[in-house]
Amino acid sequence: METPTGVDIAMFEILLHYEFMQRALVAGVIIGFISPIVGVFLVVRRLSLIADALSHVTLSGVAAGLLLQKYVSAFAMISPLYVGMVFSMVASVFVEQLRRLYHSYQELAIPVILSGGIGLGVVLISAADGFNVDVAGYLFGSILAVGKSEILAIVGAGLLVLGIVVLFYKELFALSFDEESAVYAGIPRHGINLAFSLAVALVITASIRVVGILLVSGLITLPVAASLQLANSFRQAFIYAVIFAQVSVLAGLVAAFYLDWASGGTIVLVAVFNLLCVMGIKRTVSWVRKRRGHLTT
Description:
This protein has helices at residues 4-17, 19-44, 50-71, 80-101, 109-127, 135-140, 148-167, 169-177, 179-184, 189-211, 216-228, 234-259, 263-296. The protein is mainly alpha-helical. α3 packs across α4. The termini are far apart.
């Protein structure tokens, strides 16, 4: 009789036998690393909804790319994700400009960009009278859709995001906790914020194929929400967030493969489950400690 360990190894070997699954796992590991790193800064700065806004703009870019593929032969071999990346990066610049324009109402930039992104995406999709590809794969993620060109884009985006965070870590840290003091100290707020917005746009575009446009913000924020329940320092928040993100991505991809579920929804559900488990364990531990305190007194 085969031992449980042998069964697990056999299942893992079957999983890695497929080239598309190998690409999905590589993409997932990269995304599970860069998404929470950006997410920690977004959550601390109370700007987590920017991910939603830029993801919907990316939808417009993907729709534009599909439209160009349909009617312009020169774009036949260009992935719509590259067009989505351009749209998202341009939108990140507009977000920063709107935040400067509405200095006292900076959060107004988010619904403006989000609404514009949804509207443009709907118009482009309707103008094309439908596409010959499965748009649901872009909306909800698909492990079958991660091709070699997407892997290259994800690796490139990951390196750029990591470079931005490492290069401007001290400035981002200062701006996240006390923006006014950081400005007085000579930190170029607008330039750093613009670079960070571009990093967020890259993360969103890189995550679309695995998680999907409608669910990408969940991978950015949910692991961070779980990590903040446990972390006692800013550095710990990064470490725990990356761990939770990797668990969510890898477990979600494996479950999606064997259960034939949408990868994006499965990953996000695992992330929600992780958050609920952390909250439940933390509350249980707190209750036990209080109970012991009452018994000792």
